[in-house]
Write a structure and sequence with these properties.
Blueprint: H1 3-16, H2 24-34, H3 51-60
Helix pairs in contact: 1-3
């Protein structure tokens, strides 16, 4: 699956299901491929509290993936 599609799918799941958590293997794949880690995004020095904030940040981030 293309990375952007995977990220978009995860974002939609987070928005529609309050109990959904991104599986650890998918979270690690997204981190590895984007370099944007959930706990701390060093490029922006912005701490992202939730998976939803993290995924939204990635979708809005100005890079191609």
């Amino acid at each position: 699956m293309e990375l952007r599609n995977l990220i978009t799918e995860q974002y939609e799941l987070l928005l529609t299901d309050n109990n959904y958590n991104i599986p650890e293997d998918i979270e690690m794949e997204i981190e590895d491929q984007t370099g944007l880690y959930r706990d701390f995004c060093t490029d922006t020095e912005q701490y992202l509290d939730t998976q939803t904030e993290w995924i939204k940040f990635i979708l809005d981030y100005p890079m191609e993936f």
